[in-house]
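Researcher: For the annotation table, I need structure tokens for ATP-dependent Clp protease adapter protein ClpS. Please keep the output clean. Sequence:
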Amino acid sequence: MSTVLPDEDLVVDLSAASSRPWQTVVWNDPVNLMSYVVHVFREYFGYSVERANRLMLAVHHDGHAIVAEGAREQMELHAQAMHDYGLWATVREADA
């Protein structure tokens, strides 16, 4: 019986894909006040007033903002927390 070893290129591709960061994206909605969104970003993420305002304005003007980047599991936790605060959020893989 012979041992089958994984293709070396496949192993490299899998490790590269798993190390790619993920993002939590907050989307604009017609419900939440801008001041509340700033409050959430400051309270949950601990962002400064300036950073929270900048992200809120991106949500407001661009329709969305990337509020965090990292491991997929952590980004899913962030998205769930945003839902718990009443904000619309999704998780996506970061661009290469």
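Researcher: And a one-line annotation?
Model: Residues 10-14 have pLDDT under 50 and may be disordered.
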